[in-house]
Design a protein that fits this description.
Number of strands: 24
Structural class: alpha+beta
Shape: extended
Number of helices: 39
Helix content: 40-55%
Length: 989
């Protein structure tokens, strides 16, 4: 942070804020900036831990006292004062005519102007009060301290001499900076972090703002006009959807350099004059003020992004609120089918009449239509939306209207109509906002036709278009018999493009078996099959996963309808299709407890295609239907989950562990939410919805929530299979998606076998192929079992074993092309390495060890029990550290364990009670009393026969001391040993 600590005192400058620093110390100690609070090479926030330690030890110098006081009280307040200073300078510059003239002509400020501004700034800061929101920033400082500090700051300004020597140089420098900032002499990325924060505050306070409450305001009108223009550009024929490139181009059009006058879009002449004046002022601000220009560019980018989402994201407008919703509504009106200039009035009239004929047929052939109770002239919204979606789906499927509905045209030829109709189909596919508009137009039209055909009303109660529909329907002769035979208003000249992989035979080695496995897995999770009266299979998915339904549709056919409450439905029909799906493993009513508890994965998934089983495809389909992925590496909460009946999940668990031998999984009960009201219990779905039999989904209202309660409970029979932990999740991901970062683009006969949203979510969290490979790379502790097995029949010192281990690790990492991770993964600490060897000696029983006296110290030797040395070394001993060389008791965990077992009258004591006694004794810290450490010491004592365990493994087993062998290790009687141990562990109390 200091450019060169060896420079003279006057040449030192802070790299964070650029202010000069007075060097009051010598040597290589950190140099403190009193203006911004930064230290050389490291910002104070990175030094908090060391500062806490210093505070505990007591400050050693005045410099350290300043650091500690600053780090806990005034850093954010200093930043706030700097922000306020910049804001006042900005106001003074913008309100001073002579300074603005300098900006306009791009001339530097004169010294006299700078001094005048500095004096005005001092007066402004003296009369300033600290904003109330500043206190919220300082969570570790009381309000009194903040107010006192600010009072001291202002009291320093009151004294002219002190203020001139202390503050005026900073004011002058800040004035120059803000002036050059407004002039555009800086790039934001090159500013210090303190100045970046201040610039952000300037943009928030003085940048381009929208007044959404006043619809006649200039900023509101300008935003609407820019959105209209953006919408026209991005939806124009031949426009390429490239958000980044288009954003840059469109932003340039709205900034000064290449700005085109958009006032021509304003229709009202009176308002146009006022708008033009404000627009000229905006141009001046954009020309002179860099801060305002950058704020305007950021706002324009946000509008462009909003318009893109409205145009290309299905259903996005329904999730908007506030000003964004107003923009969406304005675009809907300006782009509405009835106002679309691409279509002549005759075309719109004829299409409206033809659609009215289709609606009349649909309503006439449908049963159980329910009008609104409040207004019987309108159709129930659910039926209305369903009919409108069906018509839009037919149009989007590139289907043509049947000739029976095209008998009569008004001032328009059939050829011209067909051409424009195809353009309408293309626009409905590409523009989601236009599709929403057309859907709302259809809903109004359905209500009009329903009103005409199902209710009686006077002629005066109808609009002109309704009167035209009445006249057309009265003069139109429907060939009902011909239409009803085909049961459709539309037809397609193209054959069904469905990849028929269920009702037709496919070769045994065909990749389409993978698609079958995926679809069956998905159907078992989210499908519903019916074979009574009609043969139908139905699937529902949230609009975010519509791509899955489209892929499944390519395999079973059918029709997608929706959205209904953000849910899409796929329905497919056919006795032969349902029979084949059932044969491959799909079960009817599989959500019922009795049936669900008998389901098992189908047998065909065990077959191999290209030497790989279909298990992963089946599991992937089930995961896309009923699986979850959550968490992050930072909080160590990464987890895959699969929900289903226990027997089915146990089978899935076995399949996964057979495929991935070193993965860990476990199963728990599924937790669900219920809503209880009037002694009735309802299953609670997303968005606070419940399902009422015969009524469908019902969204809970505030009144319902006041009367009822929401509870969480364990599902009576559903379970959840968990795959948790970063390594387990990476292994599962690599297996499930074939370790392919582009698996969502993989196609088999044009069919994808992966849900895009979940895959990308997993990929974003778990990282790309390289990062996953690095995380799975072996650590030194993973290599120990391999080297023990391969050890020669001789004795090794611990440092020799560590070298062998590191060499083997380097070989494995090099083979994996991850040699650059060696320094990070290798064993470095010999004591930690010896402790790990104990686990393999006492717990896994792979190593043998002894100590040999060499000179004045004992040396540890190890050998592999799988390949032991033929000759034993004489004069060697196997030693446990209970007493030192002088024969005194060692104050270690092993002796404390023996002490508590003896105090318990040497009765059997279980592991948990022993662990709690060790913790309550307060002899050792909790970090020392880790569960694994206690188990390791128990195993070591058991290996010397000092402790007797009721079984070979440590779990809930019981322990007692072998009192007959104790004198061999302690050379004292049992009673004396108790007293010695008591004095050893109670001497400090």
């Amino acid at each position: 942070m200091i450019k060169n600590p060896s420079e003279t005192k006057s040449d030192l400058t802070c790299e964070e804020c650029g202010e000069p620093i007075k060097q009051n110390q010598t040597g290589n100690k950190p140099i403190y900036c009193e203006f911004c609070g930064a230290l050389n090479n490291t910002v104070y926030t990175q030094k908090q831990e060391t500062l806490v330690k210093r505070r505990r030890q007591g400050p050693k110098s005045q410099l350290e006292q300043k650091e500690i006081r600053f780090s806990y009280t005034t850093e954010e307040l200093r930043q706030e004062i700097r922000n306020l200073t910049y804001q006042k300078i900005y106001e003074l510059v913008k309100t001073t005519f002579s300074v603005m003239r300098q900006l306009k002509h791009q001339e530097d400020l004169k010294q006299s102007q700078i001094l005048k501004l500095a004096k005005k700034l001092r007066k402004a800061l003296l009369s300033l009060s600290l904003p109330s929101d500043s206190a919220e920033l300082l969570t570790k400082t009381s309000k009194k301290k903040i107010e006192n500090y600010f009072e001291k700051f202002q009291s320093g300004l009151k004294k002219k001499k002190k203020s001139q020597s202390n503050y005026m140089p900073y004011f002058i420098k800040n004035i120059k900076f803000v002036f050059r900032l407004i002039n555009g002499d800086y790039e934001f990325s090159n500013l210090t972090k303190y100045n970046q924060k201040a610039v952000k505050k300037l943009k928030e306070k003085y940048g381009f703002k929208i007044n959404a409450k006043t619809k006649n305001s200039f900023s509101y009108s300008l935003s609407i006009l820019m959105c209209r223009k953006t919408y026209r550009i991005i939806t124009a024929p031949g426009h390429v959807l490239d958000l980044k490139h288009s954003k840059n181009e469109l932003t340039k059009q709205y900034t000064l350099n290449t700005a085109k006058d958009i006032t021509v879009l304003v229709l009202n002449n009176y308002f146009k004059r006022n708008f033009s004046k404000s627009y000229k002022k905006l141009k001046k601000d954009l020309e002179i003020d860099w801060v305002y220009r950058e704020s305007f560019i950021e706002y324009v980018c946000s509008l462009i992004k909003l318009v893109y989402k409205l145009a290309y994201n299905n259903g996005y407008s329904s999730r908007l609120r506030g000003f964004q919703k107003l923009i969406a509504e304005d675009l809907k009106e300006s782009a509405f089918f009835e106002n679309d200039t691409n279509y002549s009035p005759y075309l719109r009239l004829n299409l409206t009449l033809i659609l009215s004929r289709i609606i009349h047929y649909v309503l006439d052939s449908s049963l159980n239509l329910t009008p609104l109770q409040s207004d019987p002239r309108k159709l129930n919204p659910t039926d209305n939306l369903r009919f409108a979606n069906e018509i839009v789906d037919e149009i989007l499927a590139d289907k043509k209207i049947k000739s029976e509905f095209l008998k009569k045209f008004y001032n328009l030829s059939l050829e011209e109509f067909q051409k424009k109709y195809e353009k309408l189909q293309a626009k409905l596919k590409s523009d989601m906002l236009y599709k929403e508009n057309f859907l709302s137009f259809l809903q109004k039209l359905i209500n009009s036709v329903y009103k005409i055909t199902h209710t009686r009303s006077k002629k005066s109660n109808h609009s002109k278009i309704e009167l035209g529909i009445i006249k057309d329907l009265a003069n139109y002769n429907f060939n009902w018999e011909l239409i009803k035979k085909e049961k459709s208003c539309f037809y397609s000249e193209e054959k069904d493009k469905r990849n028929d992989i269920f009702t037709t035979e496919i070769p045994e080695n065909s990749l389409l078996w993978r698609v079958r496995a995926y679809v069956i897995g998905f159907l078992l999770a989210d499908g519903f099959m019916k074979t009574k009266r009609s043969y139908v299979i139905s699937i529902s998915q949230h609009f975010q996963d519509i791509d899955i339904l489209k892929n499944v549709k390519k395999t079973i056919g059918g029709k997608i309808s929706g959205p209904y409450d953000d849910i899409y439905y796929l329905n497919a029909y056919g006795k032969k299709l349902i029979g084949k799906i059932r044969e491959l493993g799909m079960v009817e009513c599989h959500t019922k407890k009795d049936i669900a508890n008998k389901i098992l994965p189908p047998n065909f998934i065990s077959r191999k295609i290209d030497n790989i089983t279909l298990i992963r495809d089946f599991v992937r389909g089930f995961f896309d239907g009923d699986g979850t992925f959550s968490g992050s590496f930072k909080d160590r909460s990464v987890r895959f989950g699969l929900s289903g009946p226990e027997k089915f999940l146990r089978a899935i668990q076995n399949l996964i562990t057979n495929e991935i031998s070193d993965i860990t999984t476990f199963i728990t009960k599924e937790t669900i939410r219920y809503f209880i009201i009037d002694d009735k219990k309802y299953l609670l779905y997303s968005k606070l919805r419940i399902y009422k039999k015969g009524e469908g989904f019902y969204k809970l209202k505030p009144k319902d929530l006041e009367k009822g309660i929401i509870i969480k409970a364990k599902h009576p029979w559903l379970k959840r299979l968990h795959i948790s932990g970063s390594l387990n999740c990476i292994k599962f991901f690599n297996w499930l998606y074939e370790d392919n970062d582009h698996f969502h683009d993989l196609e088999i006969n044009g069919i994808k076998i992966c849900g895009k949203r979940k895959f990308l979510k997993c990929l974003e969290t778990l990282g790309n192929k390289k990062s996953r490979k690095e995380r799975l790379a072996p650590n030194w502790s993973d290599i120990i079992p391999d080297i023990i097995i391969d050890l020669d029949n001789k004795y090794y010192k611990s440092d020799e074993l560590m070298k062998i281990l590191n060499d083997e690790l380097l070989k494995k990492l090099t083979n994996l092309r991850l040699g650059y991770l060696y320094n990070q993964k290798k064993a470095k600490n010999l004591d930690v390495f010896r402790n790990r060897l104990k686990y393999f000696e006492y717990q896994d029983d792979l190593l043998g060890s002894f100590q040999k006296r060499i000179g004045s110290s004992n040396t540890n030797f190890y050998y592999s029990k799988l390949n032991p040395p033929r000759e034993k070394i004489y004069k060697s001993q196997r030693k446990i550290e209970l007493i030192d060389r002088k024969g005194s008791l060692k104050k270690n965990l092993k002796n404390l364990i023996i002490y508590f077992l003896l105090v318990n009258d040497n009765n059997f004591l279980n592991f948990e009670d022993l662990r709690l006694n060790l913790i309550k004794s307060n002899v050792f810290s909790k970090s020392t009393l880790r569960t694994n450490r206690i188990k390791l010491d128990l195993l070591e004592l058991a290996s010397f026969d000092i402790i007797i365990i009721d079984e070979n493994e440590i779990g809930d087993n019981l322990f007692l001391v072998n009192t007959l062998i104790l004198p061999k290790f302690y050379n004292v009687r049992l009673k004396e040993l108790k007293d010695l141990l008591f004095n050893l562990f109670n001497s400090d109390k």
